[in-house]
Specification:
Structural class: alpha+beta
Distance between the termini: 70 Å
Length: about 240
């Protein structure tokens, strides 16, 4: 084979190899650039969100479990806490392989209506302290219907509505535990805010977990309430 034919053969092979590699690159580009099929402006105003939650207005009935307690440190008597929740659907993306990823913001409120002490107080419908948080999470569903969820951010705080009350020992725990598809994974991130508001993004290595009954994904808030010489432990848990 002469030099001209050799060069022609080499060029033909190079062009063929280039075509082979162009197809996967093009496909990857489509996968990395999904179609946005839904988007909505997020409601951030706490008062509007509290009103929505009280009225039961929500975009979806998110399967979150809520639990809150306020307990007198000395007597161990429990007070009254009202819990409300609302979820906003923020965005939905569809990928070339048929997968969809939907982003939600679930806002939760725990409002202390009664602080127990050695005396009994009547519930008059007013609130002394509110704990609140917005849990930002995603749900990924493949073409076969297999769903996985991921917590990526939580923000919130405590609102004092009675000037006689103060707060200390604030703690926030972001957690996501479940089957990651290759085994059980535990993802826990405790933080200790110095003020009554917080905003935390989960670590970058946190992953999706299966959306089943064994999954625990959400936010826990703990704080101590003080009034004079009395103290109460106030906890608020929200978990998928």
């Amino acid at each position: 084979m002469d030099l001209t034919k050799k060069i022609s053969l080499i060029l033909s092979v190079a062009i063929l190899m280039g075509l082979i590699f162009v197809v996967p690159a093009s496909f990857a580009k489509n996968v990395d650039n999904p179609e946005i099929v839904f988007t909505a402006k997020e409601i951030k105003d706490k008062d509007k969100l509290f009103e929505r939650a009280q009225k039961g207005i929500t975009d979806i009935n998110a399967p979150f479990r809520h639990e809150s307690k306020v307990v007198n440190v000395k007597t161990k008597k429990e007070g009254k806490v009202d819990i409300f929740s609302t979820t906003q659907k923020l965005e939905e993306k569809k990928y070339a392989d048929g997968k969809t990823v939907t982003t939600y913001a679930t806002t939760n409120f725990a409002a202390v209506a009664e602080l127990p002490s050695k005396y009994d107080y009547d519930y008059d419908g007013s609130y002394g302290v509110k704990a609140y948080n917005t849990i930002y999470w995603q749900k990924s569903t493949d073409p076969n219907g297999l769903a996985m969820v991921k917590l990526y951010k939580a923000e919130g705080g405590w609102q004092i509505l009675d000037s006689q009350l103060s707060l200390s020992d604030r703690e926030v725990i972001l957690a996501s535990s479940g089957n990651g598809g290759w085994g059980w994974i535990e993802q826990v991130h405790p933080v200790y805010p110095a003020i009554n508001t917080f905003s935390y993004t989960t670590p970058s290595d946190w992953d999706f977990v299966l959306a089943d009954i064994n999954t625990q994904m959400g936010c826990i808030q703990n704080v101590t309430i003080h009034r004079g010489t009395s103290s109460w432990d106030f906890s608020f848990m929200n978990s998928y």
